[in-house]
Amino acid sequence: MSVTSATLLARLKDTQDLDAWSRLNDLYGPLIKSWAVRLGVRGSDADDLMQDVMTVVVRRFPEFVHPDRPGAFRGWLRAIAANCARDAWRARRVAPQAPGGTDFGSYLARLEDPTDDMSREWDREHDVYVTRRMLERIKPDFEAKTWELFQQFVLDGHSADAVAAACGVSPNAVYIAKSRVLARLRDEAGGLLG
């Protein structure tokens, strides 16, 4: 069974834990790069911005104290990403166009405001992305039948009765599969999801 994310956050306090840092980079690197591309940062500039964000995360993570508030890590990461984008823009290393043709600085200010719709959209996209990645990560920890019940019921949205009938199990077995997978997901994603 893989190390949980709650443990991952604790392990990141040790800057020498290369496995934990590699896992964080694998999880968040693609998300940050896709965000940079959506901001209009292209090619190697998007890669550079992603590296800038991850460098700040590595340097500043020992200062991060999780307040056991949903979304704390996500918000901290969002603020770092916005600051790195602003620094790159001010240094003229990147010249992105903000979505909708707005001023890029104003766009970043909206992203930093946790009450703004743009910031809430970042949070939603973060949670969907991290949930998908965590589900991929934990899937091998379950028997095929358990995962099939969970997928049909939770991910595909079929009723417990329909899944039970199609799979030859009781509706209770469907609920148990859901409970097991969601408990494991909560454990794996501890501290990362809002």
Helix/strand-derived category reads mainly alpha
Largest sheet: none
Rg for CA atoms: 19 Å
**CATH homologous superfamily heading of the largest domain:** RNA polymerase sigma factor, region 2, helix turn helix motif
Residues in β-strands, percent:
under 5%
Q: Helix-strand pattern, N to C?
A: HHHHHHHHH
Overall strand count? 0
CATH class of the largest domain: Mainly Alpha
Tally the helices: what do you get? Answer: 9
Spatial gap, N to C terminus: 23 Å
Shape: elongated
What is the CATH fold-level name of the largest domain?
Rna Polymerase Sigma Factor, Chain: A
> What is the count of distinct domains?
2
Topology:
Layout: H1 5-11, H2 18-38, H3 43-60, H4 72-90, H5 104-112, H6 117-138, H7 144-155, H8 160-167, H9 171-188
Please provide a written account of the structure:
With 194 residues, the protein is mostly helical. The protein folds into two domains: 5-140, RNA polymerase sigma factor, region 2, helix turn helix motif (Rna Polymerase Sigma Factor, Chain: A); 142-194, Arc Repressor Mutant, subunit A, CATH 1.10.10. It is built from nine helices and no strands. It is elongated, with a radius of gyration of 19 Å. The model has no long low-confidence stretch (mean pLDDT 82).
Features of this protein?
194 residues, mainly alpha, 2 domains, Arc Repressor Mutant, subunit A, elongated
